[in-house]
């Protein structure tokens, strides 16, 4: 289920431009920006169309890495229509070609994981250091509601290469290749992934969650379900209160992830998210070692959802100045810290 909503594509360029030019030439991004006038039409001037034209040029030139990144922007921010779903399939094809060049072993699997009284298919990308032993520690990793596992391979590669971890990347429920909507109960798939990691022989299991994925890693870390957890820009409590939801700025992206088939009233999104609060787990002291990081200028996740972890046992909290959601503009300094911290906890 999915829906379109009124949005000016230039607003997305304004907000996400720093991310776009981290992986693509500014001149190419600027050209798409100048050509894009409407969000949901699959024709010249439309978001998916213009990004896909650039992606096809990269693909024809054999730059599967750039094509995968660009098709990722074509399907951004959610799979609201057939055009964006086709862009995701093109991204997958280019990603698989790109993965042959990765400096680690790479494998795609579709797991059947328990959810409620049934199971659901969960597609995962597995990054394994060359020659990794069968009992190598595993890091479960995901992005958020609009940046998915195929959008973030360089982050996962870095953890595999520099921390010596086997990384199992997945899409959180309601996003990407997931077949179930996001709900407070959908965190159950993490339990299935932990079991899968242990079935591979992993002696320890960590969890990295980015943005909304940080909600899932915060939960697994607070519950002590994993051996270590990193929360990068994750909402945990204040984000799900009515005031937090109203200022979230991503309510329609979240609405799609929650499984609404048409644009819901704000109160319906607020009601659905109210069940997500991790306050019951925050009241306990059973957490695994945790590293909680975000930017002080985040417009989506209140500072409270980072600072609430201060004073907990085995927990490091960093709220970084002069950067926003997920500290994206300071990621070059955040990444080595996260890699070193997780390597130390799992190895």
Describe the fold and architecture.
The chain is an alpha/beta fold. The protein has helices at about 10-25, 25-35, 45-60, 65-75, 80-100, 155-165, 190-200, 210-220, 240-245, 250-255, 265-275, 280, 305, 330-345, and strands at about 105-115, 120-130, 140, 165-170, 205-210, 230, 290-295, 315-320. Strand 1 (about 105-115) and strand 2 (about 120-130) form a beta hairpin. It starts with 8 loop residues before the first helix and ends with a helix.
Short description:
Helix content is 43%, strand content 16%. With 347 residues, the protein is an alpha/beta fold. An eight-stranded mixed sheet has the order 1-2-4-3-5-6-7-8, sandwiched between helices.
Strand content: 15-25%
What's the story with the biggest beta sheet? 8 strands, mixed
What Rg is obtained from the alpha carbons, in whole angstroms? 19 Å
Mean pLDDT: 95
CATH-defined architecture of the largest domain: 3-Layer(aba) Sandwich
CATH level 3 topology of the largest domain: Rossmann fold
End-to-end Cα distance, whole Å, is 41 Å
Overall structural domain count: 2
Number of helical regions: 14
N-to-C series of helices and strands: HHHHHEEEHEHEHEHHHHEHEH
Q: Runs with pLDDT <50, length 5+?
A: none
The CATH C-level class name of the largest domain? Alpha Beta
What proportion of the residues is helical, as a percent range?
40-55%
CATH homologous group name of the largest domain: Alpha/Beta hydrolase fold, catalytic domain
- Cα shape: globular
How many β-strand runs? 8
Secondary-structure-derived class:
alpha/beta
Strand ordering within the main sheet: 1-2-4-3-5-6-7-8
């Amino acid at each position: 289920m999915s829906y379109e909503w009124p949005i000016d594509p230039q607003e997305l360029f304004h907000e996400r431009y720093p991310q776009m030019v981290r992986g693509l030439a500014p001149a190419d991004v600027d050209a798409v920006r100048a050509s894009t006038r409407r969000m949901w039409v699959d024709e010249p001037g439309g978001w998916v169309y213009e990004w896909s034209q650039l992606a096809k040029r990269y693909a024809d030139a054999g730059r599967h890495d750039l094509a995968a990144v660009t098709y990722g922007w074509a399907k951004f921010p959610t799979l609201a229509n057939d055009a964006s779903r086709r862009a995701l399939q093109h991204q997958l094809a280019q990603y698989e070609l790109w993965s042959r060049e990765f400096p680690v072993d790479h494998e795609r699997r579709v797991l059947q994981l328990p959810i409620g009284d049934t199971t659901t298919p969960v597609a995962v990308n597995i990054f394994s250091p060359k020659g990794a032993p069968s009992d190598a520690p595993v890091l479960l990793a995901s992005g958020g509601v609009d940046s998915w596992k195929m959008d973030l391979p360089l982050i996962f590669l870095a953890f595999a290469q520099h921390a010596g971890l086997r990384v199992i990347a997945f899409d959180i429920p309601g996003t990407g290749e997931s077949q179930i909507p996001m709900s407070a109960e959908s965190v159950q798939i993490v339990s299935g992934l932990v079991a899968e990691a242990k079935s591979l022989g992993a002696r320890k299991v960590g969890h990295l969650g980015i943005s909304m994925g940080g909600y899932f890693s915060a939960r697994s870390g607070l519950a002590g379900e994993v051996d270590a957890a990193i929360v990068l820009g994750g909402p945990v409590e204040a984000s799900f209160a009515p005031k937090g939801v109203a200022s979230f700025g991503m309510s329609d992206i979240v609405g799609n992830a929650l499984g609404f088939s048409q644009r819901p009233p704000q109160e319906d999104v607020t009601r659905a998210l109210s069940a997500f609060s991790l306050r019951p787990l925050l009241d306990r002291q059973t957490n695994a070692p945790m590293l909680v990081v975000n930017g002080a200028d985040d417009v989506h996740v209140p500072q409270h959802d980072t600072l609430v972890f201060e004073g907990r046992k085995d927990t490091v909290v960093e709220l970084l100045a002069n950067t926003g959601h997920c500290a994206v503009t300071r990621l070059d300094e955040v990444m080595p810290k996260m890699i070193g911290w997780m390597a130390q906890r799992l190895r």
